[in-house]
Amino acid sequence: MSLPPGFLDELRNRVSISSVVGRKVTWDMRKSNQAKGDFWAPCPFHQEKSASFHVDDRKGFYYCFGCHAKGDTLKFLCETENMGFMEAVEVMAREAGMTMPARDPRAAEKADRLSELAEVMDGAARFFRAQLNSSAATAAREYLRGRGLDAQTLERFEIGFAPDARHTLWAHLTGAGVSPDKIVEAGLAIAPDDGGKPYDRFRGRIIFPIRDTRGRCIAFGGRAMDPNARAKYLNSPETPLFDKGRSLYNAGPARAATGKDTPLIVAEGYMDVIALVEAGFTAAVAPLGTAITGDQLRMIWRISPEPIIALDGDSAGLRAGYRLMDLALPLLSPEQSLRFCLLPEKMDPDDVLRAGGTGAMRKLVDGALPLVQLLWQRETEAQVFDSPERRAALDNRLRGALDKIADKSLRSHYAEELRRLQFAFFKPKRAKQTPWSPSMRGSGKRFEAPPAHALQATRATLLANGDSADIAERMREEIILAILLTHPALRDMFMTDLERAEMRTTGHETLRQALLALPQKHLSDHALPDTLPEAARLEAERIMELGHVRIAPPVRNHDDDEFARKCLEEEFAKLFSRRGVAVELREATEDMAELADEGLTWRLRQAAESRNRAERSRLSDSADLGEDRAALSGELQRLIESEVWVKRKK
């Protein structure tokens, strides 16, 4: 029985070889890597204790390094189950949920015809290969030598030459007994509509044989030597052997080469693939000069779950990448995606390798972008988002792209990453070189990094030695103002708190009022002091020079807005809590002239508990202003228990 083309390939793709072999062996999990489809076990074909039997899910083959048994899934079934070939196919088809094709004499006839055409193509490949050494191919050899292809490379890729004559190949094949109809059917010759003698399709061109994953020569690609030729590159036409949209150049060797340290690179043309392979990137393929089709993309994913698409560094290359991205979005899954290698302007992989060598290409490959970043680049490049409508339009485009992703989990992760990119993109920009750049009118003064250890001067500060609650409150006000000066973009988020936080010193209040009045457009200005009134600017410079301000983490970490937000929230909460306690105690003191009652006691207890709650840090990593919380709470409790409001008899 003859099977239709592609049936066995589909069967092998649906049933992993490890699932079949795993029924007969016990995997050595210490040596195996399931995530990579790499399995080891004692060989089922000979007696051994070590795990020398290797199964590669990606390539679909097994090999024993002890007895040298090798084959694919079907051969394994035949060898271990004593099955015939077709019986093994039927077993696998049932497991894969595929219907066995009906026994069709025409299918057998078609398969025989394909085999005959493949033989004709192999004969043509040998002819072209021999012609490269002829005197007519001198210019072609010089061209190939100039592109850096040595004799070993020419042999490896079976590169040949088609003489610039109309019937050279025709005469050779017919002279060898090949029927004219097979030469035409294989796409090697063109039959004129007027019934004239067929003539060679490839003339005056360097020839690149195209083989399928089984190693059969199915087509040719030809590069013209004449600069005035109508087509620089010419491929074989669609034939019973060759479907351009389902074929890749160098697919077989690339599949064999793909492994842990060998990423699959998808380039644009033959020379790119050859240059990559010769530079050590042995897993490289090309889509034969056309945009990648859905079938080719699935074929690429069967070779590697995350191939790298090397885009030519021009607008056409980028457009091709965008088209491929749109094609891939509905097909993405956690197990298969794409990365994009963006090459320098007007350069392809061959150009990069010539200019910078393997190291330059390796750097570009290692820096390949995930698909989500290319999506973001397309939706934002060369655009201005200065209105709510334009930002809403961006949201709609991104939402449309997300809707194409079928896998729910993956779609969720894409949405999360796009939200992160949006936040970073629209976040106000600030200078990165220093956390604070006060206006010094050209003096060039900059703030130095804080010392690594506490200095004697720090230990001598009011905070370290003073015991006044007013000092702690004043310093907290300075920290709040310093955080807002260092992270001005947070002003709008804390506008209500800032309006409520009336400052106790004249300088602090002046600066607070200036920050409240500052126009929103200045909140991303790294030279913020220049936009403040003179008195507020001088106060800002004074505050930023204070030791306890300079060492505060949210002031030092000027690039971390999220950390600053948490610290600012904490400091405002502490400030308002302390002031609330002070109000309660003041009102209680006013009531002390009267006889104390349970209500007054309750109020004092509530004030103490409020103080305790406020002083428990909600952020483990926020800065502490250093006050003795336990002492203060203990003093409040002592006052309550001693009933200080009761007048004692003298």
Short account of what is shown:
The strands form 4 sheets. A 5-stranded mixed beta sheet has the order 12-11-13-14-15, with helices on both faces. The chain has a 4-stranded antiparallel beta sheet with strand order 1-2-3-4. Strands 5-8-9-10 form a 4-stranded antiparallel beta sheet, with helices on one face. The protein contains 28 helices and 15 strands.
In words, what does this structure look like?
Belongs to the DnaG primase family. It comes from Roseinatronobacter monicus. RNA polymerase that catalyzes the synthesis of short RNA molecules used as primers for DNA polymerase during DNA replication. Monomer. Interacts with DnaB. Keywords: DNA replication, DNA-binding, DNA-directed RNA polymerase, Magnesium, Metal-binding, Nucleotidyltransferase, Primosome, Transcription, Transferase, Zinc, Zinc-finger. A hairpin with an 8-residue loop joins strand 9 (217-224) and strand 10. Mean pLDDT is 82; it is low at 431-435, 438-448 and 616-628. Helix 1 packs across helix 4, helix 22 (506-517) crosses helix 23 (534-544) and helix 26 (561-591) packs antiparallel against helix 27 (598-615). The longest helix is centred in the C-terminal third of the chain and has 31 residues, at 561-591. It is elongated, with a radius of gyration of 38 Å. By secondary structure, it is α+β, with helices and mostly antiparallel strands. The termini are far apart. The strands form 4 sheets. A 5-stranded mixed beta sheet has the order 12-11-13-14-15, with helices on both faces. A 4-stranded antiparallel beta sheet has the order 1-2-3-4. A 4-stranded antiparallel beta sheet has the order 5-8-9-10, covered by helices on one side. It contains 28 helices and 15 strands. It folds into 3 domains: 7-96, DNA Primase, Chain A (Alpha-Beta Complex); 110-305 and 344-355, DNA primase, catalytic core, N-terminal domain (DNA primase DNAg catalytic core, N-terminal domain, Alpha-Beta Complex); 456-639, no CATH class.
